[in-house]
Amino acid sequence: MDKASTSRTNKSGDTGVCDHPPATPTGPGDSDSGTPGHQFEQPKEASDKQGGLGSQDDPDPREDSSPAAKRRKRNTKAKKNKKRKVDEVEVQKMKLLVSSLSEEQLNRYEMYGRSAFRREAVKRVIQRASGTTVSQKVVIAMSGLAKVFVGEVVEEALDVCQRWRETPPLQPKHLREAVRRLSSKGQIPVTKPKKVSFF
Fold first, then answer.
1. Which of 70, 74, 112, 175 is a good FRET partner for 184, with 20 to 30 A between their CA atoms?
2. Is residue 166 in a domain?
3. CA angle centred on 173, ends 169 and 177, rounded to 5°
4. Domain containing 145 — which CATH number?
5. Among 151, 154, 122, which Cα is nearest to 138's?
6. pTM of the predicted model, to two decimals?
7. Is 148 part of a structural domain of the chain?
């Protein structure tokens, strides 16, 4: 048995078989064999495992130090930093916009932010139109789209009111004209399909 173990040993006293990662050079100096060269030091991960210092509950440190894990961690940090910067820029833009609004515009902006369609009513309309049950996410999305649509109609109606040299509040004639203009621009979907004759 001693002959087998000594036959695997090279001149420096190291065996050819290694059950841990290769050692890393730390700098010039003498090795164990007395010849000048680099001193080699065991990586901490391997020495901890050999000495029994690591526990089984601890995650494998080599997984965390892999290049892919480092890259993922770096990308996540970069995305978070970028998102923070974008959010800060958006907040500054909104502050500038709100500070430049007149009193009437600010009141209208606040009312628009507070207004919302009741989700139960939106769900009822969707289910009546489609004939199927819909999830809560669909209801939220449709109520948001409806709010944007109503905002566009009201904005166009205010433009109509101003062009006709009338003062708010809006009247049904302003809303009808706004819907007519938006549909002529193609911003309102067609509710009735056009009949196409092939003759």
1. 112
2. yes
3. 110
4. 1.10.20.10
5. 122
6. 0.48
7. yes
